[in-house]
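Problem: given the chain below (642 residues), write out its structure.
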Amino acid sequence: MAMAVFGCSKDYDDTELKQDISDLQSRVEKLETWCTTVNGQISALQGLVTALEAKDYVTGVSPMNNGYTINFSKGESITIYNGKDGAKGADGVTPIIGVDKFEGEYYWTVKIGTTAATWMLDTDGKKIRTTGDKGADGSAGINGQSPVLSVATDTDGKVYWKVNGEWLLNSGKKVQATGDKGDKGETGSAGAAGADGAQGDAVFAADGVTVDKTKGTVTFTLAGEDATTFTLPMASEMKIFDKFDTFKVNSEKHELTLALNVKDGDYAAIKAELTSSKGMEVAMVKATTRAASTPWGVELTSPTFKEDKIIDVNAKVNFILPAGMEEGEAALLKVTVVGKDGTEHSATRVIVYTTEINVESVALTDKSVAEGGTIKLEPIFTPATATNKNVTWKSSNPEVAAIADDGTVTGVTKGETTITVTTADGSFTATCEVTVTEKPSITWAEGNLVADGEHGAKIGKPGDGGLYFQFGSLIGWSGGANGDGTGTPTDGSTLTAKVVPAGCTATAWDIVWTGDPDSDDAITGKGDPCKHYLGNTWRLPTKDEYVALFKDNGYPDDGPWKWDDTSKSATNNDLSLTFPASGYRSSSNGGGLDDVGYNGYYWSASSENEYMGYYLDFLKSTVNPSSSTNRARGFSVRCVRD
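Solution.
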């Protein structure tokens, strides 16, 4: 019997095979990393072509590590890395991506090895546009394409280039991305590997960005022997406008402040040209050549400078608007700054006439509100005559305080929140802090007691002077212009009994009155007028409740309690409370009123003794919530409820 045995020698060394595989993987990884960088540069090149077609200009060239950041006036900024003109690896070819013009449009090109650059074609054999076509008659335009470079290993184990996922071909053959390894010798030792040249940049050449300040241009040079260049105009380094959007003027606002960055002595003149459909006018800082008959006029003022020659107040252009201007009528403003060397720097802006007055700023003031209470925020617009005062509101912490569309803030729980208002016109914003305090144990009526028929009383408006009561009395006396406690009382007027409980026999003013708010006797007229006329849980406040109300009051200037000289009242906007200074009736002055508009007096339910009662006393400079006096005096009444 014959037996054949096959096997591998234990002396076989596969180190070289593993090294080959490792080397191939390393080269592929490097190529993939390089592809990522180059694809970004292809996008940058597409941005350059877009800028060229849009007649855009460069506003800045900022050096960065191994490249530049390029900013445009219209388009998005791009980043260009310094290229490297590297030698190719053995049998490996680096494709060079470029663009060229054909029949007025730009298309992508690819140059492989030493052959001439050819058009990059899509799967249908058509040239690939660099930027898109504009749509006609409102239809959508055709998007441009950015070719995406990549590498992939084919079935033969070699690495080839791909463009947009398809094999890159040269004369019908795939283009190899890395060099081949040498063949094996008879002894089994590996052939010498093809050397990998330093990877060249497939888009931009080394030092491919050149700024020429004399010509005012920036030139971009592409990679490759042909060194295709693109030249774009560079914006003047002179700053004239801070914005380039449409500037609206009207009969009240027709002045534009420039944003010049010149120094004193660096310029010879400033010129403003204003062109409308009816002609052009020119103004200079020191000489105006405006024709009087031109419908649109223009004037120019010089900038002023600080001691260090930096601008203090910038130059201004004033538009002289003739009668009969129509909404939307437009003009073109061109401002030119002439340097001391004669160089001109210009900028242009559209000016449109409108009857609308634009918002320039908005402000808010800090507020406080009790839990469950509400206050309304009022934006302060500049100018106050702004046409569009629509705003939106936002609370940073709605769980503390919520805000409605009309600016009404509702206190939810104790804490603080920031309220932000944003204007519809111009998107200006302002903020204020709203502090939510603990809910008070009582609720204060918004106004004093006023007459409600012959035998009744009700809560009046915040500005009503109200009826006058003696301490612990149910009889309300009137000294107001309307005779019922509404409106403003008249100083020195004689009071008359306006509200008397049904069946009451005590209708005369008692100069030795000793009423009792704890009783409720309609016949004698003694009792708590709040409880008697309003019912439910309404009552007179105690002395301590007045003291708590005016605690940390900041009166009369700092707040929250302030003296309002217009309404002659003590006011607290946070609590929406107003106490008019309604004066008082003396126990022995013949029935007339004193101190109206000067002093405010309000009875409490607290007695000091059988002849004296506590009351709130204030005038424009001081406040005392725990004063006491003779019960026979006639004071205003403010009610509370639990």
